[in-house]
Amino acid sequence: MGDPTNKAALFDALARVGKALGSGKRLELLDLLAQGERSVEHLATAAGLGLTTCSAHLQTLRQAGLVATRRDGTKIHYRLAGPDVAALYALLRDVAGARNAEAAAARDTYLGPADTEAVDRDELRRRLTAGDVIAVDVRPAEEYAAGHIPGAISIPLDQLAERITELPADVEVVAYCRGAYCVLSHEAVRLLTGHGRPAVRLADGMLEWRRDQLPIAA
Amino acid sequence: MGDPTNKAALFDALARVGKALGSGKRLELLDLLAQGERSVEHLATAAGLGLTTCSAHLQTLRQAGLVATRRDGTKIHYRLAGPDVAALYALLRDVAGARNAEAAAARDTYLGPADTEAVDRDELRRRLTAGDVIAVDVRPAEEYAAGHIPGAISIPLDQLAERITELPADVEVVAYCRGAYCVLSHEAVRLLTGHGRPAVRLADGMLEWRRDQLPIAA
DNA sequence: CGCATCCTCCAATGTTTCATGGAATAGTGT
DNA sequence: ACACTATTCCATGAAACATTGGAGGATGCG
């Protein structure tokens, strides 16, 4: 009863998924894929990887069952195998942030000084329906196109400075991005408040919005 | 903005937690620790590891922040750093089972033929309050002592054959164990039905019971 | 204090993984 | 068929990891 060989085989099989989560580059790829499907080349440049290196990491993720592929002409688009994969990534991130001091320190360093005010999703939804604020999606345009918070407008961070005039000067902006560990909304709020615009950021982002199955506009 | 060095440092820090989940032995240790705290020696024998090897794995888990220690005399007891760690382990397990064909096959091989009937938690709680069934915790006695389903009695699997007479012959037994991937309840139900006793198993176990914050008896 | 227990640290070994560049493959367009 | 693009496969050296035995540190007991 309970053959130790089978038991080891089971845990080793589970570990293959764990191993796939055991590389910063692969986690970065998952982070990108959580926003929508992407070609290999796009992922490589976005994550700062060599093409073959990126492909190898994607193979690892695919063998673990975490991502799936779709062929479109000569391009191959990778995507997360399912919403549970995004949830796993988010939980790994949250556990690391809560339990691992180094991870928490790295997060705080990356996100920069805690000088930006944040609102939670309930407050955003309440104030959005009240017409009190304007939600701005500061992620790259294609991520906005792959799904965004209903009512939000898209101004990618790298266009925000030049397009700041598109925003009404007297309505508060709520900027959001990929997720709680994404730097874009922090930068956006700093830029906006630096220009004297009232701006806060959403405490998390699309990753958590999708995870909790809130409505999404396409 | 968004220093790539800091970004890499963040993902590498998250990856340290992922790496900790990238070994079958470490997952087995987490599986055991999810049932309650344990000494190093106990963990080593339970997982079939050398003492130093076990200690090394525990150090890895501790550095990742997934486990914590408590000294009691010469013994050192390890425990999960928090309930979120158990949730992370459970989700990894579930994602692997759902997305990775090898993991699913390994699980099915380990748990044996699907010849045992399962009930879910709602049904168990309903029938327990109705006095319709008797819940039997077939985990080792110390895991029962560390917390169990209210109303359940403890008959460890390795004592079940000799203590079968303690069970009323005409009341259905619901056996449960560590979790959905634990073999004990499967074996218990096979043993009981093999003796002509009416028995089913709980579809999951204490891991999921704790995760969903259901009441626990001590 | 001396000794036993329990565990961690250290060093050495073999194994696995990672990054990279070149070759091979699949699909597109001419 | 041919060139071209996008990606995977393969081989290689460098780095990281797992396992094991023995030394060492902390605690408890007589």
From TrEMBL, chains A, B:
Q: Keywords in UniProt for this one?
A: DNA-binding, Transcription, Transcription regulation
Which residues does the UniProt record annotate as the domain HTH arsR-type?
6-100
Q: Where is the Rhodanese domain?
A: 129-218
What InterPro entries does the database record attribute to this sequence? ArsR-like_HTH, HTH_ArsR_DNA-bd_dom, Metal_resp_trans_reg, Rhodanese-like_dom, Rhodanese-like_dom_sf, Thiosulphate_STrfase_CS, WH-like_DNA-bd_sf, WH_DNA-bd_sf
Answer whether the UniProt record assigns the keyword DNA-binding to this protein: yes
Q: What is this protein called?
A: Metalloregulator ArsR/SmtB family transcription factor
Q: Which organism is it from?
A: Actinoplanes sandaracinus
